[in-house]
Amino acid sequence: MSEPSNVSNIPVGGWNITNQFVQPVWLLALWTVAYSLVLFVSVSGNVIVVWIILAHKQMRTVTNYFLLNLALADTSMAAFNSFVNFVYAAHGDWYFGLVYCKFHNFLPVTAVFASIYSMVAIAVDRYMAIIHPLKPRLSATVTRSVIGCIWGMAVVLAFPLCYYSTTKKIGQRTLCYVYWPRTAQDSFMYHIIVAVLVYVLPLVVMAGTYSLVGRTLWGGEIPGDSKDNYHLQIQAKRKVHRHNTHIMMMIVVVTFAVCWLPYHLYFMITGLNRQLNRVKSIQQVYLSVLWLAMSSTMYNPVIYCCLNSRFRAGFKRAMRCCPFVRLSEYDQMELHSARFHANRQSSIYTLSRFESCSADPHNDRSDRYRSCVTPLEHTHITTLSSAAVSINTGSVQGLKHTHNVFKHTQVPCRV
Questions:
Q1: pTM of the model
Q2: Between which residues do disulfide bridges form (predicted)?
Q3: Number of domains present in the structure of the chain
Q4: CA 229 to CA 393: how far, in whole Å?
Q5: Which of 65, 109, 317, 342 can pair with 2 through a Cys bridge, CB separation 3.0 to 4.6 Å?
C-alpha cells in the first residue's frame, strides 16, 4: 500500500554504495517460491471469481458486484505489485524504470483502499438488508456509482505517492523511492493517515455493523413491529443469511485484518525508530510482513469456494477439465437458478430460487424438467408459476392465502 512507496527505502535505508542485504541463494529461492505461490493463486483465483460473477446473470447481485470490485483490486495488486515488490526488496536494485516506479508506489494504496471499502460497502448493505429489510436495496446504478466513488477516493489518497516517486542511481544500483519535501516527517505522517483510512476506520465500521447484524441474526430482538407476516419474513431472512454471506464476509474481514496488521505495525515502528532500517535482519522481517500482506489477495477465492455453494459450483465449472474435479447436476443448478432478492424499488419480495426439487413421474419431459416445491418458512415469498409472483409484504391476508395455495402447488423449473 502506501508503504510500498517506501518499499523502496525501507530495506535500503542503510545502503551507501555497497549492498549489505545480499541473501544466500537458498533463502532467495525459498522467498521466490513463496511469492510465486501468492501470485499464481491470487491471480487465477480472483480471475475465476470475476468470471463467475460476470458469466452468470443470477450472480449479479449487489453484494457480488462489490465482491467483483474486491477481486479486481486484489488481482491488480498481485499481478502488478507483489512480485515486483519482492524482486526490489530482495535485490535492492530497481530494474523497471521511472514510470513503473511511480505506478509501483501508486497502485498498492489504490488497490487496498478499493478492497477494504468494497468490504465496508458490503457490510453496510448487509446491515440494511437485515436490520431494515423493508427498505429498498441498492440499485445497479447506485452500486456502480458507489464503486466509482471508491476508486476515485483511492486515486486521490494515493496520488502523492505517484507525484513524489523518483529513481536515483547509486553506484551500480538504481533506487526507487518517494522523495517527500520534508523527508522523515512527511513519510511518517502519510503512513499514519493511510493506516487510519485504509485499516483502522473501515475495520471499526465493519466491526460495528457486523456486530449489530450478528446480534439480530442470532437471537436478538427483531426490529420493527410484531405482525405475523413480518416475523415470517425476518425468520426466512435469518436462514438465508446466517450461514452464507454474513459468516463468509466476517471471515474475509478478519483475514484482511490479520494479514495487514504486521505490515502497518512495521512501518509505524520503523518510522519512529529509523535506525532499525540499518539492521541487516530487517530485510527478512520486511519480506515476511510483505508476504503476509500480499497473501491477503489469495485467500478470498478460497473462502468463497469453501463457504458459498454457488461460488463452489462456479469454481468446479471453471476447473472441470481437472481430473479430480467433478461437476454435478446440482452444481449446474446452483449456477443457473436464482436466489431470493429484494425488489430494488419497493418493499416487494420475489422468489427466485427453488429450495427442493423432485422429478415429476407424470411429465414425459422429466429428464429436462423438475417439479420444485419451496416451503414458505424457508422463503420471503412464494412463486406459483415460472414467472415470479410478487406479494406485498404488508398484506397479511394475501400472505396467508398464498401460503394455503402454495402448499398444494408445484412449480416446474428447467434443470
A1: 0.72
A2: 101-176
A3: 2
A4: 7
A5: 109
